[in-house]
Amino acid sequence: MKEVKTPKKPLIYYYMIILLVIMFLNAFVFPTILGTKVQDIDYGTFLTMLEEKNVKEVQIEDNQILFTDNEEKTGYYRTGVMNDPDLVDRLEESGAIYGKVVVEEMSPLMNFLISWILPTIFLYAVGTIIMKGIMKKMGGIGQGGMGSTMTFGKSNAKIYVQSSEGIKFKDVAGEDEAKELLQEIVDFLHEPKKYEEIGASMPKGALLVGPPGTGKTLLAKAVAGEANVPFFSISGSEFVEMFVGMGAAKVRDLFKQANEKAPCIVFIDEIDAIGKKRDGGNFGGGNDEREQTLNQLLTEMDGFDGRKGVIILAATNRPESLDPALLRPGRFDRRIPVELPDLQGREDILRVHAKKIRISKEVDFGVIARMAAGASGAELANMINEAALRAVRDGRKQATQRDLEESVEVVIAGYQKKSRVLSDKEKMIVAYHEVGHALIAAKQSHSAPVTKITIIPRTSGALGYTMQVDEGEHFLLSKEEIENKIATVTGGRVAEELVFHSASTGASNDIEQATKMARAMVTRYGMTEEFGMVALETVQNQYMGADANLICSAETAAIVDQKVVEIVKQQQEKARKIMTENIGKLHELAKYLYEKETITGEEFMKILYEPAKIEGSFEKNG
Ligand code: ADP
Ligand code: MG
Ligand code: ZN
User: Fold this and answer.
1) Average pLDDT for the chain
2) Structurally, what CATH architecture does the domain formed by 343-413 represent?
């Protein structure tokens, strides 16, 4: 599958350039070539020319003398009138003829034609030829597949032209549910009879919904690769134009084309760019254009016959921001969830992308997938690439398990920042902080085990970092588990306070996390006695960082705030208790981490649970 793009600069841009070029030519170039041929000379030169008998015809007017010379290619001259009583004698002597000097000046019409119209036509022609050349080149790439270059007239849309090397469903790992639903659409396009016989009709539109990077665009491309029908692809933002009405015209063009090419698939990526909720109170007319485009889309979707075999796919990260009219039956009535991959899915995605790089046979993708909990397909693809880059950097021929493990951290936490130098005191504080997290996590039940602690600063700004990896997959968290998580998050600051008797700014991210979790417990998970199962917040943009909006009175909001503070304080207290009970271990582990900078989960556990032996050997070493 090849993507064919036509340049997308507005026409006015080209006209402006043409106008500027013409103005330049008129000002500097044309006058010398086309300008009138009358040369202004002074009286002295005129007299010299007379003496040299180099004057042919003379016309004396009230304020100027026009004359021609005797050269083969006659030139026209002009000079002023002087008080010269000898002029008549001189003229006679030189043999000049009195006559009418007709200067062949261009008519104003010709002048206009030559200096404005001709260049315009010329430049336009050149431009068109160049553009055609570009189009031909692009079309040429797509040859061999069944499609060819298609232009949309007004809608310079981008079109996927099919070719044999297209993306197939097998290139999309995991997402079995989405693939199954899409397979049905592909099936319908191949064998419409089978569906007609039983009287089933396909949904006109299907909407791929899910967080960014989960493979929505990839799935749509795979549908194109599988379906063997023309595939029109355009991004929602490409409908948004500078001029009112252009977007709507593009939509009309798109559907006209689609109707002609049926059966076919139309894919509108990031449809939220045009499909946002229309808000009635918009008097400024600022969103007129978008609204018109959306209306046109709705009209077109209603207008065509589903049995003809035009199927419309769309993708979005923010389904809740879409206009409800788009989701009505007969439009995008099939919703295809494309979720973040689970453990198995992550492993499959890693394997698919690992095929593209040279990688050691020993690599255990299961372990990497477990480490990369919560990562999207795009992030996993990125991890594989990072691992390959790391291998190259270190002069290895293939990527290893270590490379992959490091790249998981790179994608999650940013690169190791080698140049950042922490003072000893700072390094010590960070060591205590991170061990604080790890210690609380380890001493509570229902906490994911610690797998790595490091105090090597990251480019993301983190000074240190404690990694916990869940053993299995977690879909539900109990109240106790969330509380334990909050306690773990507070552990860093608690350790700092206990040891250094002061707080540092290093805990800002922890504070944010703790607050978020506590707040969700109160407002969304119904985990407090005060409010029970009452929703106090709605979540917008669930895939895009989830902005929560309080939906309760100001009085209730105040109580919510109180409750949140209470929960966090309670967990912090719990963490402090655990920390005080294990203060010896805290010191021991922090010192060990301070020296090694990075320790594994096993090392951590060993020190934590084999007190005497490790302590002794540590003392000896230190
Ligand atoms: P979205 O459109 O959902 O934001 P994309 O389809 O653009 O995400 O995915 C970005 C990239 O991530 C893809 O090009 C692909 O390399 C990788 N990717 C995402 N999901 C998957 C998957 N399920 N299988 C294989 N690769 C994936
Ligand atoms: Mg996309
Ligand atoms: Zn922390």
Assistant:
1) 80
2) Orthogonal Bundle (1.10)
